[in-house]
Structures are given as structure tokens and as C-alpha cells.
Amino acid sequence: MTQKRRPDARAMRDSDSLTTWVGWVAFGGIAMATAGILNIIQGFIAVFNADYYRPPGTGPVATVDYAVWGWVLVGMGLLLVVTGYGVIFGRTWADIVGVLLAAGNAILNFAFISSYPIWSIMALSFDIIVIYALTVHGREAKVLRHV
User: What is the pLDDT of residue 83?
Assistant: First the structure.
């Protein structure tokens, strides 16, 4: 009975040619997880204190039930945390979901660029880096799983 040997980390690194983009892929995973935690916090604030996000004086910009919006933020935050964890550990499903979530986040931030220009441009920049790192170099993170 023959056993398959798992190749050691050095052989995998040599064959898959690791680059410094692995760090950017890890950064993308950490950024997604951090954004998810912030979304969860913002969501719970919206659920338990709806007046916190209500614009002063003029009323809301759009008719929005802030409790529902809060639960949407909590759900999106959980997805981002789980996906960020998967990206860090080189899961293929996380690469695909991470690109979709980053693209959705980029569209949302672009929609609010007139309200929060600096934050939106920073978020768009991170989203573009995450999308590029995951689509072009996401496969390299799988090598780290075997180290």
C-alpha cells in the first residue's frame, strides 16, 4: 500500500513561485474582516439607536427603516468576517465571494462619494487593491496553507 506524500513547503514555494503579492492577499483578507467588524458595530448601533444615523434638522435623505438597515449591516459584516478569514487561509470560495463583496462595497462607496468623499475614495482604493490581489494573485495564498 503506497501513501501519498504531501510535498514540503519549500518544494511548493519553488514550484508555485511565491511573490510579495501574498502579503497583499493577506492584507485583503484582514481588511475585509476589519470592515466586517466595523459593519457589525455600525449595524448594532442602527438597530438599538436609530436616531444616531438620522441627519439632523432636515430629516432622512431617503425613507429608510434604520433597524432593517442595521440588520443588513450586521449580515454583511458577518459575511465579510467569514470571507476575510477564508481569504487569509487560501480558500477558493473566499476568493470568489471576496471579489463579489469588494465589488459591491466599491459600488456602494461610489454612490456615497459626494457625502463622504475622503472615506469613499479610501474605501474604493482598498476595494480595487483587494479585487486585483484576489483575482490575479489569490492562488498564491493557497501555498501558505501548507507551510
Answer: 93
